[in-house]
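Q: What does the assembled structure look like for these inputs?
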Amino acid sequence: MGLWLTGYAILMIKIAVILTGVLLLAAYLVLLERKLLGRFQARIGPNRTGIFGLLQPVSDGIKLLTKEDVIPQGAHRRIFLFAPAVVAATALLTFAVVPMGPDLHLGGRKIPMVVTDMNVGLLYVFAMASLSVYGVVLGGWASDSKYAMLGSIRGAAQMISYELALGLSIVPVVMLAGSLSLVDIVDAQAGRPFILVQPLAFVIFFLSAMAESKRIPFDLPEAEAELGSGYHTEYSGMRFGMFFLGEYVQMQVLGALTAVFFLGGWRGPLLPAPLWLLVKIVLVVTAMIWIRATLPRFRYDQLMGLGWKFLIPAALINIVITGFVMVGI
Amino acid sequence: MTVYAVFFYIIAALIIASAGLAITRKHMVHAVLYLVVSFIATALLFYLLGAPLVGIFQVILYAGAIMVLFLFIVMMIRMAPGADRPFPAGHFIAAFGVCGVYIAAALVLAFFSGPEAGRPMAAAAASPAAFGFYLFDQHWLAVEMISILLLVALIGALHLGRAGRRKQSGNKEP
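A:
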């Protein structure tokens, strides 16, 4: 019984640490994005709250929590209330399989630095991604607004299309690592990160990941100029905050997955392992913000054309080539 | 009762309750959502029984892909007025009759099957790699047949899409 309780306590501590870290980072990514966007657009960005605007996330949080939670009259109440939670929860749950470092040995006990090392970890990541579509679809439908509805239809079509390219781009990585477990994939990159062997897979993965996160240049589901702000037009207060939080947690998820699949995960010289993962996440997220500040929005047929006519065939060809090279060696 | 048994009964109750709600709700979006809950609970049951791969497939394919398409179609349909009324009693009698026969058959099978009946679970509970070898080694013909079927569907969809486009451009030209 004592052993069981210790294991349970360790699990709870791991979950608490990861959850706190992810939520804190999400808050400061908002600040980072606003600061960087400011610089890219020759502005200063938020600098009034605290030194360098460092308390801005706190005041944003207070504002969101104290605002009125408006529910439109024609809305399907229960589904409307429930949808933002789906987006935030699926994004947070993905972190359960992301390895944060090598096994820790504490008092003769081996503690893996991951909440759960599933042997189907990679498929679990995709399962969570495919469930997050429900948040977008239901949020838009339950709002009973044509802009939200249009946004959610676009969002669902886009996410379903790019999930295929996302999944196919990872197949060569799985072939090289010989496992679906994220821990094993990181271990397989002990010699060299997979970005050096699979640059094409990396490009396809990164593009589809950006499309999955529905950010500029792939932000058609929320296109401000046409749709208000898409599927979350009718949301306010902390429910809007949940969509917002979900988006920034998803950016971290994509950063973490890019790090795990292509950049060697927590591996790196000198610095401690979790810090390396953090550095890599922030690096990927910064690249995403930079792209957001640089590019205009796609047209809808261009978006679908890129996914179906370029990314998916390229990913399939990459799988075939990788197979031939592996059999040849 | 062990912890596993407790979880099993909670999940089983969730599956039955959500499946029951899915077939009795008149609002189609609600029905689809209850079906999704039922699928996710089934995936949890697979995980509890030691088959995470099957559980994950259940979520990705059924809850994540097929039901999203269902929801997509259902969302577009405007409900006819008066569709919120409960089902007529005759429907219920027929449904319960079919269910009764099905459950009875399942129970008979469960009671009269030997220990051999647990064998398919061994393949499901294996690691993903072992499952893949089993599938492509023992059932390669079925895999190939399904892939050809999917290819036919793909080409069919392409043909239908092209036919529509040709007609449109034909109207424009003259």
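Chain A touches chain B at residues 76, 79, 118-120, 123-124, 126-127, 130-131, 133-134, 137-138, 141, 149, 153, 156, 160, 178-180 (CB under 8 Å).
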